Input
Amino acid sequence: MGTVKVSGRAHDMEGVPVRRVMPHRTCRAIGPFVFLDHMGPTEVPVQVAPHPHIGLSTLTWLFSGEMRHRDSLGNDQMVRPGEVNWMTAGRGIVHSERAGDLSAPLHGLQCWVAQHREEEQGESSFQHLASAALPRFSSEGVDWTLIVGHWLEQRSPLNIQWPTFFAEGRVQAAETWQWRYPSSHALGVYVVSGRLTVDWHDGEAMTLAPGELGAFPPPESQAGPVVSADVGTHFVVLGGEPLPEPRQFDWNFVSSDPALLAQARADWIAERFPSVPGDSGRIPHPAEKSSG
Output
């Protein structure tokens, strides 16, 4: 895959307006990241009833507002700005997302990270990291928060299965930087606000506006891209080592094996997935809606 620019599309997430950025027909994955939603900002309360996942880890990263996460493992956790919710589905998990404090608009990102083929049928798990646990540092005019993996010689304490990174940047001074990272890693840059330009040494720089994602292949050398941005620009970088096999989707299910997708669909329709303690209801699979 060469360099690609993607603009998010308006989407409805159980009543909450989101900008769906990935997957896109021109960008199916960036490293192990296979899904990116930009939520809000919105004052619409989140009421996402229990629903299932397989074969992926979900990452929730909020800029404002809060959400209550409950899952079939018994976890009941409020997630607030600067905190990490990382849920790993393995062979199957169910969770819900409900509104918390409504005094601030809900605004943030949700990502799916595909699990390695050897882990797709593993145990489910959940990690929550408080804000104080995350590395925060400044580098060349950017204030960084490292959420997942390894970035700019810093490392997050989050326990992950595959070489992956996700970091938030806020530009405090107008400078030009060169990002260096492993030559095996793909890079994505998503702009929340402001404007950022990435020069990939291919003779044509890519300028990204709010709601736009730039996807870049692994660098051919350690030089890395040259980046500049307006003061005040708010963005995230994400990516990592690409998975060796492509991933397929069926609704909220991700897998390298179509048979696992079919089994998960049948199990959810037949209500064989575990329930979420303290929460009720379920979101039907699209096949149930169409057949009803």
Summary: DSSP finds two helices and 25 strands in the chain. The longest strand covers residues 33-42. The helical segments are 258-269, 286-291.
